[in-house]
Design goal:
The chain has 18 helices and 18 strands. 51% of the residues are buried. The model has no long low-confidence stretch (mean pLDDT 92).
């Protein structure tokens, strides 16, 4: 069985999967499922994964896009979680510095705010120690003038002081894709748009799933010794299919983020601030934009399609007006936006913001292993815990043993750049390589920052695709990115490309509007869409464009 990650070969991949027997079959292609696939495959376990939407289409492309340790959870005395997740930030960074970047975070302290000067100083110090933060990135306390100098847009009235500490900014969807690609490169079989409809059982034990390809309607059965439910917001739906939805259940909450052009909201320093009702909100500058979020409200609608309502939008706008009064943003200023659903473990009597972000593993009587809760930052440790359990069971039941977990020091796809210490030098060298091939420096830099050590695979396509990009009327970088996304990242639709492979829907929405037709035409040619498919995928992208913008 040869692992491939090409959208054009999805049918072949599913056929191979249906004719194989796996050690581990994972349901769910978000960051948790991807992490489990990588951990299992790297231990030598025969691994398969199915995702009913695109990879990272759920929570894993709709987070705050920060690898952070959860400073606010110290307030809830979640010391163990803060320590473990905080230490994982550095691991995620080292294994993929092209998708994760240190982000100094400013926490302003106000006379009537939630945080006091002493409590913040102590809290940040404890946070640094728990998270094992290196000395150069440990917190600094600042006076009011230094805080205002660092971010002049902050409200000065009642400003007392502030704290500066380090979090890590990431592209959550690309992080997921890179982890999945590394799993595939190590032998895992992974496919998107394949939905688990039911479980196959033998003597009361789960031994596989019945599945349907959502793109062509074909059905199949996939078999494995261990089936892992890592489906995020859909965890309880699968437990219902298994007949094991009892005891603890999920509580879904919704969070939204608004994106502004940097000229309209020229934030130059990431800020973590409290709102009048005591919640915490991030404002982060990124690639010429500023994004702000998040809300935290109970959610009971379709987890595949959370929408931003007027109250969500107004809550974030009011938070901005309160903390950055001179910006005076309105709904018309929102350039893009996204909404996501958090799959938290229900705790009776607690509000959305009070519920723990801890993860738990549940094993049903049928043997179905379910992983629930957790945070983006902790995906690797969650995967290690789940695969440790599955490997122990496999050894007890079959006598076959798996190797130890090696992911702590395993670069993800694109991460072979010399670690965080060597990344800047590596990136500059590869940018120069791109310029030598005839690319503009800004184009080469975009490719290197997006793909890391995989950029050579895009450069290798350059000579053969340069003429074709002109025929299709596309900039060469978009043509390269679309080609690579289809052939090596299983991008099957325009939404896959514009949302999960590039993030352009959120941070380059003008580019999406300008080139969506050309990209769709190229994808249709390569993937042999029918007229009906081309129309459906075009309508899907247009709907997404309409949903993320409030401009009329």
């Amino acid at each position: 069985m040869t692992a491939t990650f090409s959208a054009g070969k999805r049918t072949d991949v599913l056929h191979e999967m249906a004719n194989a027997h796996f050690d581990i079959l994972i349901i769910g292609g978000g960051i948790t499922g991807a992490g489990i696939a990588l951990d299992a495959a790297s231990r030598g376990l025969k691994t398969a994964l199915v995702e009913m939407q695109d990879f990272a289409a759920g929570t894993s492309s709709r987070s705050t896009k920060l690898i952070h340790g959860g400073l606010r959870y110290l307030k809830q005395f979640e010391v163990k979680m803060v320590a473990e997740v905080g230490r994982e930030r550095a691991v995620v960074y080292e294994n993929g510095p092209h998708v994760t970047t240190p982000e100094p975070m400013l926490l302003p302290i106000y006379k009537t705010g939630t945080f006091g000067r002493l409590s913040t100083s102590i809290g940040l110090m404890v946070y640094d120690r728990l998270a094992g933060v290196k000395y150069s990135e440990r917190r600094r306390m600042l006076n009011a003038r230094a805080v205002s100098d660092m971010e002049p847009l902050l409200r000065r009235q009642e400003l007392l002081s502030g704290g500066l500490y380090v979090e890590y900014r990431t592209d959550d969807a690309r992080l997921t894709i890179e982890v999945m690609k590394e799993a595939v490169s190590r032998g895992a079989q992974a496919i998107n748009y394949v939905k688990a409809d039911g479980f196959i059982k033998k003597d009361g034990k789960v031994v596989g799933i019945q599945a349907t390809d959502q793109l062509d309607g074909r059905t199949c059965m996939l078999h494995a010794d261990k089936v892992i439910n890592a489906s995020g917001p859909w965890v309880d739906r699968l437990r219902e299919l298994d007949g094991s939805r009892q005891g603890k259940t999920l509580q879904l909450t919704k969070g939204i983020h608004l994106v502004f052009d940097g000229k309209r909201f020229p934030l130059r320093q990431a800020v973590y601030f409290d709102t009048p009702d005591g919640r915490m909100v991030f404002a982060v500058p990124r690639d010429g934009k500023t994004y702000v979020g998040t809300t935290d409200t109970v959610y009971k609608d379709d987890p595949a399609h959370p929408l931003i309502d007027d109250s969500d939008r107004e809550y974030v706008l009011e938070a901005i007006r309160n903390m950055f009064p001179d910006v005076r943003v309105t709904a018309e200023d929102v350039e893009s936006a996204w909404a996501g659903v958090r799959p938290l473990i229900h705790e009776e009597g607690k509000g959305p913001s009070e519920i723990s972000r801890k993860d738990e593993v549940w094993v049903s009587r049928s043997g179905l292993i379910t992983i629930a809760g957790g945070k983006l930052t902790g995906y690797r440790k969650m995967a290690e815990m789940v695969v440790d359990l599955a490997a122990r069971q496999l050894e007890e039941e079959t006598g076959r043993s798996a190797g130890p977990c090696i992911t702590k020091r395993l670069p993800i796809s694109g991460g072979d750049v010399g670690g965080s210490a060597g990344y800047a030098v590596y990136a500059e060298r590869k940018i120069k390589d791109g310029v030598a091939l005839g690319l503009e420096r800004a184009v080469a830099e975009r490719l290197v920052r997006t793909y890391g050590s995989n950029v050579d695979r895009l450069y290798a396509r350059l000579s053969g695709l340069r003429g074709r990009s002109e025929v299709h009327g596309m900039p060469i970088e978009l043509f390269l990115m679309a080609s690579y996304a289809m052939e090596e990242e299983m991008a099957a639709t325009p939404a896959d490309f514009w949302v999960r492979r590039t993030g352009a829907l959120f941070f380059r929405i003008g580019e999406v509007r300008q080139w969506k037709g050309a990209v769709a035409a190229y994808m249709s040619q390569v993937l042999h869409w029918t007229e009906e498919q081309a129309s459906h995928y075009g309508e899907e992208l247009d709907r997404l464009l309409s949903e993320v913008s409030f401009r009329r």
